[in-house]
Design a protein that fits this description.
- The structure holds two protein chains of two kinds.
- Chain A is of the alpha/beta class.
- Chain A has two domains: 10-141 and 265-291, 3-Layer(aba) Sandwich (Rossmann fold); 143-263 and 298-365, Response regulator (Rossmann fold).
- Chain A has helices at residues 10-27, 54-69, 83-95, 109-118, 143-157, 172-188, 205-217, 231-239, 267-279, 309-324, 351-355; strands at 41-44, 73-76, 100-103, 123-127, 136-141, 162-167, 193-198, 223-225, 243-247, 258-264, 289-291, 298-300, 334-335, 341-343, 364-365.
- By secondary structure, chain B is mainly α.
- Classes of the chains: A alpha/beta, B mainly alpha.
Chain lengths: 371, 351
Amino acid sequence: MKERNTKPSASARLFAATAAVLASCAASGAYAFTLEGAPKVAFIYASSAQDGGWNEALEAGRKAVEEQLKVPVAVTENIPEEATKLRAAIDLYVKRGFNIIIGTTYGYSAPMAEAAKAYPNVAFLSASGTENGPNMESFYARTYQGWYLAGIAAGQATKTKKIGILAGFPVGVVNWDINSFALGARSVDPAIETVAVFANSWWDPVKEGQIAQAILDQKADVLATNLSATSALDAAEKAGVPSVGFQLDMSHAAPKTIQTSVVFRWEKYLVPTIKEIIDGSWKPEEFGAFEGLETGVVELAPFGPTVSEETKAKIEAAKQDIIAGKLDPFQGLLKKQDGTVVVDAGGKVDDAALWSMDYFVDGVIGTMPAK
Amino acid sequence: MLDTAFLVRRQNPGFLLTSLSYAGGLLVGLTVSAMLLVHAGVPASALVDEFLIATFLTSDGLSQTATAALPLVLVGLASAVAMRVRFWNIGVEGQLWLGAIASTWVALNGIGPEALRLPTMFVLAALAGAAWIAISLFLKLRWGVNEVISTLLLGSVAFLLVQHLLFGVWRDPANSFPVTATFPEASWFSILGWGQLHTGIFLVAGIALSIWFVMEHSRAGFYADAVGFNAKAALATGLPVLRTAVGLVLLSGALSGVAGMMIVAGTEHRLNQSVGNGYLFSAIVIAYLARAKPLWVIVVSFALGAVFTAGNVLKVFYSISEAMIVLMQGTVLMSILMAQFFSTYSLKRPN
């Protein structure tokens, strides 16, 4: 499998884009992608599109594409992450003239890459995917930037100096959220500890509610969820402790206690990218699209009623610093849970190391499953 | 008016009655399924287009059906051979997972010379599947533990084992996602150039024909039927009851294991958490509809493969859920089983 290596920075990206424009002027676009026929877009989901979280956030992006670009957009749900079943769905779409296919889970990535080779005039976009090519781009967001800001909110809110986060599985994109949340809280007070628990499921509301209660029983007085269900927020609202949601604005589940939610705004990536594909100006990123606060693909939902002005100001300042490149959640000196140094002062974790992040940082209480 | 009636088992239901009731059951099942689909919002005209034409009359549809049928034939046979000796293998998915694990281990670690990679995967997958069912077999023979329970529960254990590996040693090294790296090409069945159909079809054909020969034309098949109909009588006659039963149960596990290998080496080229899902139900449906006859298993597997192909079309373009497709399978199965009941029994008035 190809090494997942994401693009270095916004400036390098700009440079790459400029270089690409120059190159295409010089070589009349040897790598250019052209769409065959009228644009027709298809979204393929592994489960229900209205799942209250991940899919629903992409679904909001899909609706924006439909409304703003005025192109036909089809939706298919419940296609399992199996090569044969996904490929059959793609084949059917392509046969009926669909030429922009969006897959919505990492499990689709490899079969999509094979389909991309078979259909060079069809554009493929793979959410949280791992493969890229002349007509395929994977996209994900720097969610950890949002979680750092949410960590500041939690750090400001905690009195017991202990906060909790409920997550799905120990994969890179989840681990960086947990770590960044803990680091954001520690930027407020270095004594704050973060209890992290994996539910070992992406969707299990009952179990999530039980875990949430267990975290609260450990004297944590802020509770965040990294999952699509709102169980943790329900438990927090009941216990009257501040909470943080994810993927969509989850304030409906905890109107009194919610601080904010770290949300995806996929339309900020999907609308311009699909527009480029239609215009013929699309250049897939060699290492995938990986945008964050600077483009607004990740942002914080409106703050809850209990968030102080001081907290809001702190978060805004950190946000501006991250956008300006003055602050990186994973900058040195960064230590793992066991005290080993990940990056020395002055350095930061690069993108490849982000994707393979398989440790907790100093200040997280929890166990990473052994390799 | 009919006040009382007796159900009388027919001594020997004729071929005509059997096939008529089978066809009748199939027709009722398909009609009810079609009504369900129309009710769910699929236009009746589309049913003909999508179901019949796209599935059976296009090259793509047929190649998809054939590809999907390969592991189905294997799990169907697995369920069928165990059924012949009245061993209820409800752990087909568990043995399939073990086969997938064994072949993944061979593929990822490059065990053995490249030319022998696929045969090595095949042998180890078969052994792993057989070993997994051997646990249930041992529990049954030693302590009389019901195999329905033990095979089913071991299926869950096998899935946890897969998760343990995928979130541990086998997770994708580049991004920690719970899927293995793609296998080197030496571990792939090569594509035949007709859709996704691969050379695994020859292996499946060979296995299916061998099992057909063994079950229908050899002494072992005769023993199996004797054991299945009445194990005590078979034992009293001096037949090798234990040997026959143990052999076929282990064969059942091995076939499920090979199905796991067929999926990872044939179409997925990696192991993930969803490759084995749904095969247990399919295996039981196939074995029942085929009445545990090997050649019929092949036919029914292709029919079920076609249902998946058609189901895919319905899912993609008409937002029909997976649950609806399983419901259709169940409807067809139930109608045929009920029709079979009436070909086996007749209603008699009391004299």
